[in-house]
């Protein structure tokens, strides 16, 4: 079995939440709204909340939902 070099294992993976936020922020200026369907534990919506966006989060899995509320 060939081992994957450490450089590949530890590669940089960008946080897609920041990328999405930056794109949306450029296009929405008045009362922005974020809808997070499958919100899991809410990691993706935090940045939007901190910037005073109106956020609507939906999570069907009970254990994740309980961490959201």
TrEMBL record:
Give the organism, scientific name: marine metagenome
Question: Mind telling me which SUPFAM superfamilies this protein's record contains?
Answer: S-adenosyl-L-methionine-dependent methyltransferases (SSF53335)
Q: What is this protein called?
A: Methyltransferase FkbM domain-containing protein
């Amino acid at each position: 079995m060939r081992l994957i070099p450490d450089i590949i294992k530890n590669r940089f993976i960008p946080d897609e939440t920041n990328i999405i936020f930056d794109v949306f922020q450029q296009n929405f200026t008045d009362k922005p709204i974020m809808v997070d369907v499958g919100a899991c534990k809410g990691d993706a919506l935090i940045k939007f909340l901190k910037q005073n966006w109106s956020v609507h989060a939906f999570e069907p899995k009970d254990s994740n939902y309980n961490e959201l509320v």
